Amino acid sequence: MSSTTELAELHDLVSNLRRCVTSLRSRYGESPAMRRIALDADRILNDVELLDTDANDLDLSRCAERHTGEKIPVPDTQYDQDFWRDVDDEGVGGHNPRR
């Protein structure tokens, strides 16, 4: 699915959300919870509009993941010991603590 189609679907969903919020507001009035929901819906709409702008500016379609299917061979041979010199085990701490 292209990003344009996804953004159009997102706009439709946000429009449905706003209609639901309007309906709920007429039913429950201006309670604090209803105001929070309305503000959240407005924030979502603003974020979608920002995403639209970013998508146009950055041309997100060119950033789509492209899997070539090419496999990269990794040798089974041991690395040269000098490769690992002065390297600490991650999460275990250093072999030669300097205190």
Indicate the proportion of strand residues. under 5%
Count of individual beta strands? 0
Listing every helix as H and every strand as E from the N terminus to the C terminus, the arrangement reads HH
Gyration radius from CA atoms, angstroms: 26 Å
Which whole number gives the mean pLDDT? Answer: 80
User: How many helices in DSSP terms?
Assistant: 2
- Terminal Cα separation, in Å? 56 Å
- Class by SSE composition: mainly alpha
User: In one word, what is the shape?
Assistant: elongated
Helix content: 40-55%
- Residue stretches low in confidence (pLDDT < 50, at least 5 long) are none
Largest sheet: none
Region (Disordered): 68-99
Question: Which helices and strands, and how do they pair?
Answer:
Layout (H helix, E strand, L loop, with lengths): L2 H26 L3 H27 L41
Tell me about this structure.
With 99 residues, this protein is an all-alpha fold. It has a domain at 3-57. Helices cover 54% and strands 0% of the residues. The protein has helices at residues 3-28, 32-58. The model has no long low-confidence stretch (mean pLDDT 80).
Question: What distinguishing features does this structure have?
Answer:
single chain; 99 residues; mainly alpha
Please give a quick description of this structure:
This protein has 99 residues and is mainly alpha-helical. It has a domain at 3-57.
